[in-house]
Amino acid sequence: MERKVRYELEGPVAIITINRPDVHNCIDGETAKGLGLAWKKFQEDDLAKVAILTGAGDTSFSSGADLKALDTLGPVEQFDVNFAYNGDGYLGFTRLNSVLKPTIAAINGYCFAGGLEMACWCDIRIASDKAEFGCLERRWNVPLVDGGTQRLPRILGWGRGMDLILTGRKIDAKHAYDWGLVTEVVPHDQLMTRCKELANQMANYPQGSLISDKQAAIRGWDLPLDEALRVECQLGMPHVKSDETEDGLERFKSRVRT
To answer: Measured between alpha carbons, how far is 226 from 204 in angstroms, rounded to an integer?
Structure first.
């Protein structure tokens, strides 16, 4: 599995790389299992504060499920109720909501079909200026089953989300930035440098409230605003007078003004 998914730790930053560049980093069953294990390793790794997901090579982040090995993905039985309700997703991790540390998708090329769904799972998406995006599985009657139908409209709004889902068209990195699908577009050769810079910035912050704020955002997503605000307050209160916050306030008071 390690040959298809690499997990590397650079200081506080975990880099998870889909390593099938010969097939545009498409995901077969073994790769999906490796991705699931990699994300759970990150979740449990106290040294890892932020993770970057990317694809090996110079062409593709991921073009989604390996359609030549589709029978290796998902449950043995087509209608597996337990998988539908409790599984981790066809691509190994796309239903995980328990990863509370920050995640970045470093989109270095083709980001199609399930590749786009994996990128949407990440908190932040940064694209190379060579990146392309789209639900190209539309033409093969392959459904979006790794979160695309739910995350794309939430990220882009209904109209633009449904545009990508239903038309199956490709958009370039500038278009993706204009639509809010990605937050930055950088020159291709600077992509990982920028992603690591941002990851280290987040890793150097005090982690307590950073993690609880992400948790509040996840838990409050589908709640009415008044209930979501209660969740936010409940999760944030323990940090207001914590030792970590006291230390932060002391640093704030003693900072040198220029």
So the answer is: 32
